[in-house]
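hiii, so i know i said id send this last week but things got crazy w the move. better late than never?? heres the sequnce for the chain we talked about at the cafe, plus the structure i predicted for it. fair warning i was half asleep when i ran it
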Amino acid sequence: MSLNLTDITLTYPDGESRLTALDRVTLNVGEGNLTAVVGPSGSGKSSLLAVAATLIAADAGTVTIDGTETTGMTRAELTDLRRDKIGIVFQQPKLLPSLTSAEQLLVMAKLDGRPPAKARPRAMELLAAVGLADQADRRPHQLSGGQRQRVNIARALMNDPTVLLVDEPTSALDHERGAAIIDLITRLTHQQATATVLVTHDRTHLTAVDQIAEVHDGRLRLPTVRTPA
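okay and structure toks below
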């Protein structure tokens, strides 16, 4: 299980010319690996995540997820791929206000064609994994910001994705809660054996990630591999 971006180039219209958002970016993330992508605002981090999520098609290069190259896939095929293989943790949790924590996860299972009764044990397992087993029946307005982000993470893992893509998960949290969220993502990456990409501008919580890749002006510097002390 892995995520491989190879020679990705992405441009956007900019008046009569085009602006290069990603310039021949190559990034390989293996099973159980957490790679942090850092860089200033406007450097290309969000564009990289969108391409990896198959939400935007690159001008050139290939995206391969769990051995499947996405080039040439139809929109329906890409939708199926995202549902089955990719978990996305958005910067803002975007939880459905009328649903409980458990129901937020069960919606994902329903989209995958699994009946709620069969999916509920998995939902409860994931809520326990993120420390919210006792909050399963609470709705978003009854949860703290950090708890809502934990539900967001559990929801992204509900369909057992190969790839986990995380977009600035600590931006709305204080330092202590932000550190706890990064620790949680690190632990779940290893436990669930996902290939995880964490996009962030905050380097203060990255002591436990496996590698750090820096994006500047659309170019990716070679990852810094972290080795255990």
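btw Helices lie at 45-52, 75-85, 101-111, 116-129, 145-156, 175-192. thought thatd interest u
miss u guys!!
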